[in-house]
């Protein structure tokens, strides 16, 4: 049957235009990334074409730039805290949505998922008003609370999807064989959810590292990396930003490859397990 | 179940309460001495209706968001169709290639467009280098065009994802059946594939529209005076202009707009989904 589909000659003439279109879209998606990597080595800074005098100067300036590294440390703290908060509340939320019946469940589901689709400005401002009314001073802590709350949506969606695929018979077997609810949860349910949880954690981490719209309103004295970059962009064009972006891009690529291999291995285990 | 209580409490305190507070703030007012008075009135909403700048900016933001949505679909849909139906063994790789730009910081990508579009930027110097123009084109940067281009770049992968997911869920034997019964590829696409992908299109379009409608960073960075969007007004009301209640009223209007859009697109998606 598959032979028939891939061999259907009817598809051929159309796919030429589609291939061209796909190539053009990829060019559009990667053009800015190529530019920023190329210009991070450009001796004349950010303008001009073609780039002249390739240098590593911007990387050297970057490594000597203490405020940037402070902001990187701040962002790492925020991302780790956000990860902890959103997993702590997002995993039980997914379990509750999958298994429990309680009044207001539909509202709860919508509310949890709302920050995922809502423009960051609304989440950021509403939290700003909350902290203002509570008399909380803005600091990294308020950003952690903001990211943690907004990203519960990510933890919940990922883990909920994992729960839907879960084979309930395993849990029933565990209960039948005399394990109590908690033993079953920790020894059967959680190990089966390992992959969605790791996936959610990675996603939350990267989203938090890059988040700016919510942080914009909750920032105290200490900047996160995106806000530090934002401040510099507002003051004028600095090629150092290209360098730091290129570095972040390479790290993201490593994270993607890591995650991808983890998932492929997970699928292979799942396939052989059946 | 004990597991429901902690998330319920947390969501109640940090999500529900803030939205309710936004609602309350929008009915309060601010004195000339810049203190917020908790006296309930409709002044903010009256001002919103009467001052034209707010309306015009909201309409302009919706127009920018609509263009971003259209362009993201025009770029994302055929790409998703190509990857899902024609990519063969390269499918996984191409899919990952669409996702990777999402991992590059939003700010950095917006800033890269600034490098490309600026008057001594990559595009202008390139155009002069090949003698297509003699002076830099000024309209490229600091215009709604720059904002639409940048946001399209950012939201194309976001529209690609749900469309791709919808296309992947189409049973391939339906497509085969259509071919076998003598339909041309165009007929198969318009009568079988496209209708079945509509839920994905709706989800992608909603995503692109809502997120670009609320954006305030791209306009600040690349928009110039003619590219100001509604969120920029909100930002200034919460900052230098110090009128939180009015800012809250505008935000609440945005929230209502967004939530009703989500509601309608969800209903439409249900209507169009098979099974």
Intertermini distance of chain A: 24 Å
Q: Output the CATH class name of chain B.
A: Mainly Alpha
User: From the structure provided, what is the oligomeric state, counting identical versus distinct chains?
Assistant: heterodimer
The ordered string of helix (H) and strand (E) elements of chain A is HHHHHHHHHHHHHH
Number of domains of chain A: 2
Q: Just name the CATH architecture of chain B.
A: Orthogonal Bundle
* Structural category of chain B: mainly alpha
| Arithmetic mean pLDDT of chain B | 88
**Which two chains have the most extensive interface, and how many residues on each?**
A-B, 84 and 89 residues
Defining key terms:
heterodimer, A: 274 residues, mainly alpha, MetI-like fold, 2 domains, B: 275 residues, 12 helices, 73% helix
Can you characterise this structure?
The complex is a heterodimer of chains A (274) and B (275). Chain A is mainly α and 274 residues long. Chain A has 2 domains: 2-39; 58-273, MetI-like fold. Chain A has helices at 2-6, 12-39, 57-63, 66-99, 105-117, 120-134, 140-150, 152-165, 168-176, 181-192, 194-210, 213-218, 225-235, 239-273. The longest helix of chain A has 35 residues, at 239-273. Chain A is globular, with a radius of gyration of 24 Å. A two-stranded antiparallel sheet of chain B has the order 1-2. The mean pLDDT of chain B is 88. Chain B has one domain (44-272): MetI-like fold. In chain B, helix 11 (230-238) packs antiparallel against helix 12 (244-272). In chain B, 73% of the residues lie in helices and 1% in strands. Chain B has helices at 5-25, 43-50, 52-86, 91-99, 106-117, 122-129, 144-168, 172-180, 185-213, 217-223, 230-238, 244-272; strands at residues 29-30, 36-37. Chains A and B meet through helix 1, helix 2, helix 4, helix 5 and helix 6 of A and helix 1, helix 3, helix 4, helix 5 and helix 6 of B.
Brief account:
The complex is a heterodimer of chains A (274) and B (275). Chain A has 274 residues and is mainly α.
């Amino acid at each position: 049957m598959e032979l028939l589909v891939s061999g259907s000659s009817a598809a051929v003439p159309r796919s030429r235009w589609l291939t061209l279109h796909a190539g053009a879209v990829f060019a559009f998606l990667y053009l800015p990334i190529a530019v920023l990597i190329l210009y991070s080595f450009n001796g004349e800074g950010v303008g001009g074409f073609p780039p002249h005098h390739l240098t590593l100067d911007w990387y050297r300036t970057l490594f000597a730039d203490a405020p940037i590294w402070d902001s990187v440390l701040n962002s790492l703290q925020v991302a780790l805290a956000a990860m902890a908060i959103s997993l702590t509340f997002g995993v039980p939320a997914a379990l509750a949505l999958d298994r429990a019946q309680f009044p207001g469940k539909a509202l709860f589901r919508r509310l949890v998922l709302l920050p995922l689709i809502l423009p960051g400005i609304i989440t950021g401002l509403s939290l700003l008003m909350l902290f203002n009314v509570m008399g909380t001073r803005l600091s990294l802590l308020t950003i952690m609370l903001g990211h943690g709350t907004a990203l519960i949506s990510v933890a919940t969606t990922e883990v909920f999807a994992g729960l839907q695929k879960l084979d309930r018979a395993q849990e029933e077997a565990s209960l039948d064989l005399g394990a109590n609810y908690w033993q079953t949860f920790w020894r059967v349910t959680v190990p089966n959810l390992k992959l969605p949880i790791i996936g959610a954690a990675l996603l939350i981490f990267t989203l938090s590292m890059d988040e700016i719209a919510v942080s914009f309103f909750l920032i105290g004295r200490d900047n996160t990396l995106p806000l530090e970059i934002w401040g510099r962009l507002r003051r004028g064009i600095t090629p150092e930003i290209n360098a730091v972006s290129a570095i972040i891009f390479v790290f993201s690529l490593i994270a993607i490859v890591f995650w991808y291999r983890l998932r492929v291995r997970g699928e292979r285990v799942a396939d052989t397990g059946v | 179940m004990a597991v429901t209580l902690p998330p319920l409490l947390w969501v109640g305190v940090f999500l529900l309460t803030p939205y309710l507070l936004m609602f309350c703030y929008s009915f309060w007012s601010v004195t000339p001495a810049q203190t917020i008075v908790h006296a309930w009135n409709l002044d903010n909403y009256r001002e919103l209706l009467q001052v034209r700048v707010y309306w015009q900016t909201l309409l302009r933001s919706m127009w920018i968001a609509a263009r971003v949505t259209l362009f993201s679909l025009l770029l994302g849909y055929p790409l998703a169709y190509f990857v899902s139906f024609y990519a063969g063994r390269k499918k996984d790789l191409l899919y990952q290639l669409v996702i990777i730009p999402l991992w590059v910081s939003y700010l950095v990508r917006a800033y890269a467009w600034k490098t490309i579009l600026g008057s001594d930027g990559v595009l202008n110097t390139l155009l002069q280098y090949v003698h297509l123009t003699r002076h830099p084109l000024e309209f490229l940067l600091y215009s709604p065009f720059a904002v639409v281009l940048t946001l399209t770049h950012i939201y194309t992968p976001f529209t690609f994802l749900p469309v791709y997911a919808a296309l992947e869920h189409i049973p391939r034997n339906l497509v085969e059946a259509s071919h076998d019964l003598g339909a041309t590829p165009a007929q198969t696409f318009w009568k079988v594939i496209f209708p079945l992908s509509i839920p994905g299109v709706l989800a992608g379009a909603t995503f692109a529209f809502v997120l670009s409608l609320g954006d305030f960073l791209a306009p600040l960075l690349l928009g110039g005076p003619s590219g100001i969007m509604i969120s920029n007004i909100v930002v200034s009301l919460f900052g230098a202009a110090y009128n939180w209640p009015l800012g809250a009223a505008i935000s609440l209007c945005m929230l209502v707009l967004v939530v009703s859009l989500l509601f309608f697109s969800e209903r439409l998606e249900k209507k169009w989904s098979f099974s």
